[in-house]
UniProtKB/TrEMBL annotation, chain A:
ABC transmembrane type-1 domain span: 73-261
Gene3D superfamilies: MetI-like
Keywords from the named record: Cell membrane, Membrane, Peptide transport, Protein transport, Transmembrane, Transmembrane helix, Transport
Entry protein name: Peptide/nickel transport system permease protein
InterPro entries named in the record: BP-dependent_transpt_permease, MetI-like, MetI-like_sf, OppC_N
Organism, scientific name: Stella humosa
Cellular component terms (Gene Ontology): plasma membrane
Membrane topology: Multi-pass membrane protein
Transmembrane region(s): 12-34, 77-101, 122-148, 194-218, 239-260
CDD domains referenced in this protein's UniProt entry, alphabetically: TM_PBP2
GO biological process: peptide transport; protein transport; transmembrane transport
TrEMBL record, chain B:
CC terms in the record's Gene Ontology section: plasma membrane
Domain of life from the UniProt record: Bacteria
Lineage per the UniProt record: Bacteria, Pseudomonadati, Pseudomonadota, Alphaproteobacteria, Rhodospirillales
Domain ABC transporter: 4-254, 277-525
Matches recorded under Pfam families: ABC_tran (PF00005), oligo_HPY (PF08352)
Single biological process term from Gene Ontology: peptide transport
Protein name: Peptide/nickel transport system ATP-binding protein
Predominant location: membrane
Automatic annotation (TrEMBL), chain D:
Gene3D superfamilies given in the database record: MetI-like
Entry's family note: Belongs to the binding-protein-dependent transport system permease family.
Protein name per Swiss-Prot or TrEMBL: Peptide/nickel transport system permease protein
Locations listed in the record: Cell membrane
Length: 274, 534, 502, 323
């Protein structure tokens, strides 16, 4: 069975993919479905779901919650993807160098990684974003900074063991240049776990971003799910819908990504083929 | 005592064949030692596990047939009853001694657990006494210490003895041993076989011994059963089957076993030219830390190793696991840097080379690896795999392609292989591809690190033939690393015996086999199983 | 039911927990609310901002407006038993506050000489006429400090700061940091039969929702300022046991201003600033963001502050007018509908201020001005504000009763300084400066009013800042608490007259 | 041997802590914003002299390296400096908040570890329905933002059902009596512990399940079965111990993350702990306090990691000292 076939037989993963696709679709169609800004104070404040023609109600300033969720999908997915890409890239780079060259370089880089893992990551993210002012770039940077060490460790482990693999040794003995050994021999074989980790990292990034926004550390110009919850959390007793729906959106998205990531992990792991 | 009748074990859909075991019938009499032989995947282990009622629970189960043990059909026995039989009436030893014991439990506890499980009613002191006496019975030194030890503190041979102790603890009537010595060195293997044989004789236990090694069969079997693709193709008394195999497959199997004949090749004339490769005073020390809190330990993997290799000559390096064979080969091809000594290739010191110069020089010395699965990048097609060498040394793609096709032809594969991926080939075919890759650079020296030890005997024989062929055609000098003296005797002009990082003896196969000077070499030769028969 | 009864302990929520209680050392809101019950000044002010006796029972102002004489209470004592004298007053205003209190320093540096003819009399001679002088003697502007404990010490590190000694109706008992603080009745208080209360306990509950619950359950009797969230006001108002005070902030009269940095284009064009004002529906801000707590202002002076004049240019919500003004400036919409890009530096002091930034952004967007919000932490915010590094910033300003004290600082050319809460947007109209100078020195009420009326007209016309809201901080009280809000200082007052009904 | 290794680990840990301090010190000081300004802002008005005074009295006018050296010197004497915002020693502030966080983190840690291991075990052992249920449970809690779980918990259990207090660590009205006090805190502890704990329960359940499934095909399990041990005994006596070790290691590594996660939980539940203190410190730009918090938390993390390593060596004979 190919990985794709294996993935297809995994019902949970397929459900995840479906939800994810729906979320992506929502994100893509947000400007069509809700052409005005999600910040637009479109209606009366405090409208309950379905009241006044607002599917999910309005918030304390009369902003359409459904519009916020649709536009929030764009923000959450995009931010998470960019942050994951940045974190993965950094992690792969560090991990590859450490794992391939070993010795002192490895020692040094792993110390650095360990150091970053010692500081509670969420605390670090909060501090970075707060100090350098909340904006897309600082949020992406902070998420990347706290998530690269995991990737680096994984990649290092992969490289460490793949470096000893006979086909890699063979390619060294053949006289292939180092960059080819790294990029053509080792990296493609380490890609499976990296893809899986990266996909799960997207989920973590969404959670991180929403947690930051919840604390008021989101980009103030971007309507995000975490923001919606954070802004309305004091109203939970009077207006449950304001923070319930964005939470459901986060939940579904993160769940979907996890399902897909797990599915990918199973599909890409040949050991599990029966 | 044990009767297997018409046993079928179907394979879940999508496998290469429908049945793992098909229509198998076999009898084992009390006190008898029956060997089941057959190549990898022939269904030996599943048969054994079916008897134990321990088929791997991924949907494998016996679909037809009966297994009758002392009048009871084991396949129909309730779980409880079966658990009562296991360990007490029927016990089993597994192949991998390194993983067969619970790593977190003291060895003594693992043995005495058996008494608890089967409610032997022994008190603590009695259990302890029995554990110690069992360990002593197995010639284990200092039983009291061993009982207190954890598995990781013991060697493979010791662990396998503990397994045997567990198997014999309650004096079962039937013991199933699934390749219990395959992972061990020949000398250790011989000790284990002797202990097993002795206990079996002393206690009158019936044994089903699974192996793929006809040497072992010859050494211990009363009766032999040969399996092929899930079916029992032949069975009979050991002598009869080995001497006059009836089935063609059995014949092929037995023919593939390397002969211990020392006369095969004429002595080569003393070389006149300077050696292609000369190694002098090579040393390598590893510093390892055991566990997190362990102290640093030095492993002297190579101690002052020296030898020379002449054009067209094959030097076999034999030695037990951990003797430093692989380390030697890696140092020579500069996958690692030796701590001391020099390696001269055509009089040029390899140790001085680095970067581009080293890469250029690599062309002359190539390597074939042990694991046919691991030595080919699963994500690259065969063509590019073979072409990679020439391309790295500046050959134009078209020319590299031509070379690759030529090399495939040389190793007996057709050019259509170029566009397929490694996993689409069998183990033997892959080993050919690995050879083609090494040869594509037209090296002068070829190092083969246990190139056949992962293969079945029949395939092994083909590859050895191919190697001989190629070597003659190309006039290669070759270093052939193996732990199997039979194989070494077949391929080598000279044999170097390694032990703990040192070459203890070097000589022609005839000299090594016939009149070894070194004690260790003599032990090695003596430990070759089935010497008398095959 | 309406005659005051003695006894009972009043429980007040304070948030955030203040760093200390010494009002002379710092005026964080909690410090003043609690410290205001311990430390007093010479005067207090009624809702109309008329001076009333405090530690001074009488006072006179000379006809030339240069000499102020205060007659102190004969029986006022410090909590440690030492008598309160004119020496304490002189020490406080000329030494202590000069070191620690920038606002007081601004007033008392105008004093040429202080005389203490006797222990109960103190005379201030001013260098020049300064009509708002009396307003300085208010509980947060000039709290009296005991000379015998502080003289010659490092005021900041004096051990007495830990166990403050004042003259007020309540004495310090204990402070369990992070939890609560106890004050007890001062039996030696100089007003007979006062205070009614046996004591006051202050509770610190960090979470806003928990504070609201505490109010609803009657676990506490009062919550004020940041202790109450605007978002909870609706439900608190609905609670029959509670009332929300509508008076008591006349002295501070917080006025929310939107500062538009006139140094930067397009803000340097008056029409742009006016267009932004027309784009804002200030009733929405008052009703939706601040839940009705306040009034829509007309100009630079809050309606409760002295010399207020409503007859000025107004800026009603009118998007068309805003667009017209922008068109007139030549800021035509680009392809994507935007006319200009600006930034709003949000005030990082809580959700409602964030909502305000969001509201402003949306309002501007509707007339084609694309705004982005910048969020910062308080440090960064203050830094950028004081260094004039913003397009639009908004915050609230206390008026301190007289325009000369709280209003002028925002508009005077002479106060264009890189100092927090000075004239940051760079507005400079010499006429306004001159009028303020004249008004400050003027003791004749009608003339003074004329000056300030003109100032209000000039400033509303020039519109250097936008007047968003006369903010009324929420003060929520259990109905059993009586006579608490009796002065312009509201919940910060000493509470000598407050009592608890049973 | 063990001692020497321990000392080496401790030295390494100290180095990491030192690096953490230096790193934080540098980024905190490099970031824009001036603490003197905030304090000035707080007092309602300010002038240059006032700000200069503040700078001088808190040593902010000195060059960075000098400030750093001074700080390190003080830390060695367990002096974490003075919070100019709160006008109290940082060590005191942290010490005051630390117990609340430790209580919360520890109970969440114990809950998640115990529950996670049990759930993972049940899922792996009984497959089928149990597995599905546990999988859904862990996926759900793994995917839900921690703060949202907290809010929904409040909505359901505090607002709707009125079973549990929604905020804080103690009742508003002080409770008297030792047991009553403890019970009061315990009641307040339930929702925050569940909120923080369930996320990690999800992680540990998944880990435990995976770990058991990894152990299951190993030879020693077959050996135990071959001895005649019942399935239950094999799972309990042989597989469990081998499978739980990696989970414990992971838990050790994550102990630090729980402290980080408590910022959110403490915010939602107004739990008077160090997470909130950190958050407030960030917003008030209270450098020294923040540094102190970093110092304390990373020291705790390093200590926990060393401790888990050490416990691990006691539990796992393979990593023990060479005999
Ligand atoms: N758990 C399993 N699930 C599915 N197929 C299996 C499983 N175990 C073994 N098989 C298949 O059953 C067949 C017989 O396997 P078995 O392990 O009995 O071979 P063997 O003779 O013991 O080989 P070897 O010498 O390599 O140990 C093989 O084709 C193998 O692929
Ligand atoms: N990278 C390494 N680090 C530490 N020790 C090593 C390393 N490689 C090998 N050793 C040790 O050096 C010794 C020699 O190992 P080597 O692999 O050369 O043995 P070998 O003869 O090839 O054994 P085998 O037959 O098992 O392949 C062994 O004790 C081994 O444990
Ligand atoms: Mg087998
Ligand atoms: Mg080897
Ligand atoms: Ni294969």
């Amino acid at each position: 069975m190919t990985a794709a076939q294996r993935f297809r037989t995994n019902i949970a993963a397929c459900i995840g993919l479906l939800i994810l696709a729906a979320m992506v679709l929502l994100a893509v169609l947000a400007p069509v479905l809700y052409p005005t800004s999600p910040w637009e104070m479109a209606g009366e404040p405090y409208l309950r779901p379905l009241q006044g023609g607002y599917l999910l109600g309005t918030d304390m300033l009369g902003r359409d919650i459904a519009a916020g969720i649709a536009h929030g999908a764009r923000v959450s997915l995009l931010l998470a993807l960019v942050a994951t890409a940045a974190g993965t890239l950094a992690g792969v780079l560090v991990g590859a160098v450490a794992g391939y060259f070993g010795g002192r370089i490895d020692e040094l880089l792993m110390r650095a990684t360990e150091f970053f893992q010692t500081i509670p990551s969420f605390l670090l993210a909060v501090v970075l974003v707060a100090l350098f002012s909340p904006s897309i770039s600082s949020i992406v940077a902070a998420i990347a900074v706290v998530s690269w060490p995991g990737v680096a460790r994984l990649v290092r482990g992969q490289f460490l063991s793949l470096r000893q693999a006979e086909f890699v040794q063979a390619s060294i003995v053949l006289g292939e240049p180092t960059h080819r050994v790294i990029f053509r021999q080792i990296l493609p074989n380490a890609l499976g776990p990296i893809i899986v980790t990266a996909s799960l990292m997207v989920a973590t990034a969404i959670l991180l971003e929403s947690s930051l926004s919840f604390l008021g550390l989101g980009d103030p110009d971007l309507m995000s799910w975490g923001y919606m919850i954070g802004a309305s959390r004091n109203l939970i007793r009077d207006a449950w819908w304001m923070c319930t729906f964005p939470g459901v959106a986060i939940f579904l998205t993160v769940l979907a990504i996890n399902l897909v990531g797990d599915g990918l992990g199973d599909a890409l792991n040949p050991r599990l083929t029966s | 005592m044990l009767q297997i009748r018409g046993l079928d074990i179907p394979l879940p859909g999508g496998g290469e064949r429908r049945f793992a075991v098909r229509g198998l019938s076999l009898d084992v009499a009390p006190g008898e030692l029956v060997c089941i032989v057959g190549e990898s995947g022939s269904g030996k282990s599943l048969t054994a596990r079916a008897v134990m009622g321990l088929l791997p629970d991924m949907g494998l189960r016996a679909s037809a047939g009966t297994i009758t043990f002392k009048g009871e059909n084991l396949l129909a026995l309730p779980q409880r009853r079966m658990e009562g039989l296991r360990g007490r009436e029927i016990s089993m030893i597994f192949q991998e001694p390194m993983t067969a014991l619970n790593p977190l439990m003291r060895v003594g506890d693992q043995i005495s657990e058996l008494f608890r499980i089967h409610r032997s009613g022994f008190d603590k002191a009695e259990r302890q006494r029995r554990v110690l006496s069992l360990l002593a019975d197995l010639n284990l030194p200092d039983p009291a210490r061993i009982a207190e030890a954890y598995p990781f503190e013991m060697s493979g041979g010791q662990r396998q003895r503990v397994m045997i102790a567990i198997a014999f603890a309650l004096g079962p009537s039937l013991l199933i041993a699934d390749e219990p010595t395959t992972a061990l060195d020949v000398t250790t293997q011989m000790q284990i076989l002797r202990v097993l044989k002795r206990l079996q004789a002393e206690r009158g236990t019936a044994v089903i011994f699974i192996t793929h090694d006809f040497g072992v069969v010859a050494e211990i079997a009363d009766r032999v059963a040969v399996m092929w693709r899930g079916e029992l193709v032949e069975q009979g008394p050991a002598r009869a089957v080995l001497g006059a195999p009836a089935h063609a497959y059995t014949k092929a199997l037995i023919d593939s076993v390397p002969r211990l004949s020392a006369d095969a090749r004429a002595e080569r004339a003393a070389p006149t030219q300077p050696p292609v490769l000369s190694v002098a005073g090579l040393s390598k020390i590893f510093r390892v830390r055991k566990g997190m809190f362990g102290a640093e330990r030095k492993v002297e993997a190579l101690k002052q190793v020296s030898f020379t290799l002449h054009a067209g000559e094959t030097l076999a390096v034999v030695g037990e696991s951990g003797s430093g064979k692989t380390t030697l080969s890696r140092c020579i091809v500069r996958l690692m840097r030796p701590d001391a000594g020099r390696i001269d290739l055509f009089g040029e010191d390899m140790g001085q080379l680095a970067g581009g110069a080293l890469r250029a020089r690599r062309k002359a010395i190539q390597m074939v690896f042990q694991d046919p699965h691991g030595s080919l990048n699963p994500r690259i097609r065969v063509g590019p795999i073979i072409m990679a060498g020439p391309l790295a040394h500046g050959v134009k793609p078209a020319a590299a392609r031509a070379t690759a096709e030529r090399m495939l032809g040389l190793v007996g594969l057709d050019a259509g292989a170029m566009d397929r991926y490694p996993h689409q080939f069998s183990g033997g075919q892959r080993q050919r591809i690995g050879l083609a890759r090494a040869l594509a650079l037209e090296p002068l020296v070829l190092i083969a690190d246990e190139p056949v030890s992962a293969l079945d005997v029949t395939v092994q024989a083909q590859i050895l033939d191919l190697l001989r062929d190629v070597r003659e055609k190309l006039g290669l000098a070759m270093i052939f690393i193996t732990h199997d003296l039979r194989v070494a005797g077949q391929v080598a002009d000279r044999i170097a015996v390694m032990r703990q990082g040192e070459i203890v003896e070097e000589g022609t196969p005839a000299a090594i086999m016939g009149s070894a000077r070194h004690e260790y070499t003599r032990q090695l030769v003596a430990a070759i199983p089935g010497r008398r028969l095959i | 039911q309406d005659t005051p009864k003695s006894g009972g302990t009043l429980r007040i929520l304070v948030h955030p927990e203040p760093p200390h209680l010494v009002t002379a050392l710092g005026q964080a809101s909690g410090t003043v609310t609690i410290g205001g019950k311990v430390f007093e000044s010479l005067l207090t002010f009624d809702f109309e901002l008329n001076p009333k006796p405090g530690l001074a029972e009488r006072w006179e102002v000379s006809a030339d407006g240069l000499t102020y004489t205060f007659h102190l209470r004969p029986n006022a004592k410090w909590h440690d038993g030492k008598p309160f004298t004119s020496a304490d007053v002189a020490f406080t205003t000329q030494e202590f506050l000069m070191k620690t209190h920038p606002r007081a320093r601004g007033v008392f540096s105008r004093v040429a000489a202080v005389e203490t003819p006797d222990a109960r009399t103190i005379v201030y001679k001013l260098k020049e006429k300064f009509s708002p002088f009396l307003y300085a003697f208010e509980l947060s502007g000039a709290p009296m400090m005991p000379k015998h404990l502080y003289e010659g010490t490092d005021f900041d590190k004096n051990p007495a700061n830990e166990k403050p000694i004042g003259t007020g109706p309540f004495r310090f008992v204990a402070w369990k940091k992070g939890e609560s603080l106890q004050l007890e009745r001062n039996p030696d208080y100089y007003r007979q039969g006062r205070p009614y209360l046996d004591g006051i306990s202050f509770h610190f509950i960090p979470d806003a929702a928990a504070r609201t619950v505490a109010m609803e359950q009657g676990a506490v009797d009062q919550a004020q300022f940041d202790a109450v969230q605007f978002t909870d006001l609706e439900r608190l108002r609905r609670n029959p046991a509670l009332t929300v005070a509508d008076k008591g902030q006349e002295f501070i009269a917080p006025l929310v201003l939107m500062d538009m940095n006139s140094r930067r284009p397009p803000f340097d064009d008056k029409r742009f600033r006016k267009a932004l004002m027309h784009a804002i529906d200030r009733n929405f801000i008052k009703d939706r963001i601040f839940y009705g707590q306040g009034k829509v202002p007309t100009g630079p002076i809050a309606s409760s502050t002295r010399n207020y004049d409503p007859k000025v240019a107004t800026y009603p919500y009118d998007q068309e007018k805003a667009k017209a003004l922008l068109d007139e400036m030549g800021l035509k919409p680009k392809a994507d509908g935007t006319r200009a890009d600006i930034k709003i530096l949000a005030l990082p002091y809580g959700d409602h201020w964030t909502r305000l930034a969001e509201y402003l952004r949306e309002s501007f967007r509707r007339v084609g001005v694309r705004a982005t919000v910048e969020n910062t932490d308080p440090g960064n915010w203050i830094q950028r504000y004081t260094n004039w590094d913003y397009d639009i910033v908004y915050t609230f300003f206390y008026q301190y009763a007289d325009p000369a004290l709280g209003v002028g600082r925002t508009y005077l050319c002479s106060n264009v300084r890189k100092v927090f809460l000075a004239n940051a947007n760079g507005y400079c109209n010499q006429r306004v400066d001159d009028l303020f100078t004249a008004a400050t020195a003027e003791t004749d009420e009608t003339k003074k009013q004329a000056y300030y009326s003109e100032i209000q007209r000039l400033i509303t016309e020039d519109l250097p800042v936008g007047f968003l809201l006369e903010l009324q901080f929420p003060v929520v009280m259990n109905k059993r608490l009586r006579d608490a809000i009796t002065t312009a200082h509201g919940p910060n007052d000493a509470y000598a007259d407050a009592w608890l009904a049973r | 041997m063990r001692l020497r290794y321990l000392l080496r680990r401790l030295a390494g840990g100290l180095l990491v802590v030192l690096l953490v301090i230096v790193f934080c010190f540098v980024i905190l000081r490099l970031a824009p914003g001036d603490p003197a300004m905030i304090m000035a802002g707080e007092s309602g008005a300010s002038d240059e002299q006032f700000i200069a005074d503040i700078r001088r009295s808190y040593g902010l006018d000195q060059p960075l390296p000098v400030q750093l050296a001074k700080y390190l010197g003080n830390v060695l004497q367990f002096d974490l400096g003075f919070s100019y915002r709160q006008k109290r020693p940082n060590a005191e502030l942290i010490a005051e908040r630390l117990p609340a966080t430790l209580l919360l983190a520890a109970s969440a840690f114990v809950l998640s570890l115990a529950l996670g291991i049990v759930l993972g075990y049940l899922a792996a052992r009984f497959r089928g329905l149990a597995d599905a249920a546990v999988s859904i449970f862990s996926l759900a809690f793994y995917a839900t933002p921690i703060f949202w779980i907290g809010l929904m918990g409040i909505l359901v259990f505090s607002v709707q059902l009125e079973w549990l207090p929604a905020f804080g660590m103690r009742s508003i009205l002080p409770v008297t009596g030792g047991w009553a006090k403890a019970a009061d805190v315990a009641r307040h502890l339930i929702l925050p512990t569940l909120t923080l704990g369930l996320f990690y329960t999800a992680i540990y359940a998944r880990l435990m399940r995976a770990s058991l499934l990894e152990v299951r095909p190993l030879d020693f399990v077959a050996t135990a079965r071959a001895k005649g041990a019942s399935i239950g005994r094999v799972w309990r006596r042989h597989m469990f111990r081998n499978a739980v070790l990696p989970v414990l290691t992971m838990a050790g590594v994550q102990a630090g993350q729980i402290v980080g996660g408590s910022i959110l939980v403490e915010t939602v539940f107004a739990w008077p702990g160090i997470g909130r203190l950190a958050f407030e410190a960030v917003f008030q730009r209270d450098y020294n306090l923040l540094l102190g918090i970093f110092l304390v938390t990373s020291t705790a993390v390093v200590a926990i990691n060393i401790a888990t390593d050490f416990i691990y060596t006691l539990v796992d004979p393979r990593t023990g000292p060479a005999r």
